[in-house]
Amino acid sequence: MACRFEVVLPGEDARHVSAARAALDIADRLEAQLSVFRETSELSGVNRCAADQPTEVSRPLFALLQRAARIHAETGGAFDITSTPLSRCWGFLHREGRLPDSQAIADALTHVGMKLVTLDAPSKTVRFHAPGVELNLGAIGKGYALDVMAKRLRRAGVQHALLSAGASSILAIGDDGAGWPVHIRPRLLDGARVARLRLRDAAIATSGAGEQFVVVDGQRYGHVLDPRTGWPASGVVSATVVTRDAALADALSTAILVEGPALAEQYCERHPDTLVLMTLDGDPERTSVVGRCRGALIEKD
Amino acid sequence: MQLSEEQQAIGRRNFLKALAGTPALGLLGAAAAMKGPVPGGPVRLGIIGVGGQGRALLNNIDPAFGDLKAMADINPDSLKRADEVLLKRKLPAATHYVEWKEMLQKENIEAVLIGVPLWAHADATVGCLEAGKHVLCEKMMAWDVDGCERMTRAAERTGRLLEIGYQRRYNGVYQAAYDGIVTKGLLGDVYHVRMVWHRNGNWRRLGNPPSPDYNPSQWGYPTFEHLWNWRLYWKYSQGLFAELASHQLNAVNWFLGSHPTTVMASGGVYRYNDGREVPDHIYAIWDYPGGRTATFSSIESNALENRYEVFFGTKATLLVKNENEAQLFEEGSAATQTGVQVSPRDSGPAAESSETRPGNTNAGTAAAAAPDSPSGARPAATKQEISRFCAAVRVGTPLACGPHEAMHSARACIRANEAIQKKMRLDL
């Protein structure tokens, strides 16, 4: 996940510092389990073996993979944990973006898609139906880690805390009185603030094309790739999702960046406690707001 | 100490995190205590020596604390430039003197700031103290140990205040680090301190005499070059140890609550063999009681590392960089990208949501460790220094670095030069 995790406690809650440290240890442990940048992680083991044979995984990892598969289905495939071959083809995996030729993209696409992955619940095994398939939890892992940390903190009696993972995923426990103040400030918009929120027992995640990109012939290609076409998502510059749990917010923010406002409308209609804020390409001054979340209050400037 | 941007951000955050819960941040505490004019009105000041450092002092006299009446300098150009400083600051003009003794006789002043070349510190300071003036003398204390002792005895004999100006003692970053980190034991036991002050350039200053027939030989400088570049000649200077190391060593003594007992050193004129006498590269090891060791290097051939002090403790490492920022790394966790913050409530956001920033620190508070730009930290500290000195004169508030404190760092630096010359390890 390669990002910094933080826990903010209200000033009078210094007694919970040790609980916060314990929660941060969880983040380290999950990183060791889920990161594809570590060869020793459980997920790297799956990627090495699952094309050859069904590979058994731990219960929490299996549950997370099932969750990812469900969000994949709910977002029409816009969220996809198998898109690593595409990221590699575009050079985004190691932060060396380049424009690949169409044949390379077509080749990469043959290794992408949840249809190539079978999750067998009784045996808790993962099976790939082609060589070269890879799972990557980068678009859900940070949120998932925050959810696990929050569970631990609540159990320790923490009533108010703000957890964050590299700024893209934030989770509020309680409300610190008037709601935890969180500002949305996408980098592609030169750090201009697009909204101020107050959070109460809610999670927020932001995805944007500003994170990594490559410019070829004046055309800017963002690092979030549409797993169905193999080309960078376009249309949405920044997508923020507020919902009750951080893993879902994390995954949805990526899916909406890929699929655009239509998915936001459709998803929010079916899932009431979801709020989406989008900045669309060509209209950086305006923030589109879809849906609502009980845990989030948008403050007027 | 080459740390990645990410590590540095974490270190800054750790530093602030460790300060959380410290009731009065040193960053603010001293300044708050100094607010408002001193009872009894500003202290009537004179200044001896208005070259570069003297003018830096003039630039930082707070008129609520000090009222400059007169200034003495043997270089008329320096006096002219000092006038310009006062004019620019809209402060009243000060009477000019060439001889400081004449200034002491004629002016109704209470205290004197001294910014003359090092070799003249002792005579000027003792002269002022004996004339009943309080003295704030620029560092290093004196050219030799005898001079330091004469100054100390004069202060004791006359009952006047003597402060030696070390800006780090008045710098908010150091005060916060000392109050919030060092005295709280967060570093554990510190066995090693590393001091680095690296630059890449000639130390020589270019300048012209005030007039073609200007002759400073009556004051002990055979040519204008000797006056202008006094730092390069042994008669007037103790070289890089006095001008750079003594700053850092004085702060290390403060943080360790101790002073060194032996010194080993090496160095020479290696790069700029242009007639200068003092080395352009120096290296020293000072031993403190209790198995503690401080090392120092100053080179004039590479500036990558610039200047910093690092305190390596059994529990944590404290890095103070360029006098304006501090970073803290707990042992074993320097690379761990996690942090706990106990935040006081304020109006700002608790977090900012954006795309992933690798290893970022989320909130914008890290910059608070560096309230000033690199060039800004010193003036702020110098202003504190003069104001606190004036407050000490008026109302007896304690001084940060009196003669005894200053003598320890001066002796360690003077003996380091001797150690190079004698190729010996010396007791202090």
Question: What report would you give on this structure?
Answer:
The complex is a heterodimer of chains A (301) and B (428). Chain A has a domain at 167-299: ApbE-like domains (T-fold, Roll), CATH 3.10.520. Chain A is 32% helix and 25% strand. Chain A has helices at 17-34, 42-49, 59-74, 84-89, 102-109, 141-155, 246-259, 261-270; strands at residues 5-10, 55-56, 117-120, 125-128, 161-165, 169-173, 180-184, 195-199, 203-208, 213-216, 219-222, 236-243, 274-280, 288-292, 296-299. In chain A, α1 (17-34) runs antiparallel to α6, α6 runs antiparallel to α7 (246-259) and α7 (246-259) runs antiparallel to α8. Chain B is α/β, with parallel strands linked by helices and 428 residues long. Helix content of chain B is 34%, strand content 21%. Chain B is built from twelve helices and 16 strands. Chain B has an eight-stranded mixed beta sheet with strand order 13-12-11-7-10-9-8-16. In chain B, strands 3-2-1-4-5-6 form a six-stranded parallel beta sheet, with helices on both faces. Chain B starts with a helix and ends with a strand. Chain A binds chain B through residues 2-11, 13-14, 17, 20-21, 24-25, 27-28, 142, 162, 164, 166-168, 170, 176-177, 180-188, 196, 204-208, 210-211, 238, 240, and chain B through 6, 10, 20-21, 336-345, 348-363.
Which keywords apply here?
heterodimer, A: 301 residues, alpha+beta, T-fold, seven-stranded antiparallel beta sheet, three-stranded antiparallel beta sheet, globular, B: 428 residues, alpha/beta, 12 helices, 21% strand
Order of helices and strands of chain A: EHHEHHHEEHEEEEEEEEHHEEE
Major sheet size, sense and barrel closure of chain B: 8 strands, mixed
Mean pLDDT of chain A: 88
CATH superfamily of the domain at 167-299 in chain A: ApbE-like domains
Would you state the CATH class of the domain at 167-299 in chain A? Answer: Alpha Beta
In short:
Chain A is of the alpha+beta class and 301 residues long. Chain A is built from 8 helices and 15 strands.
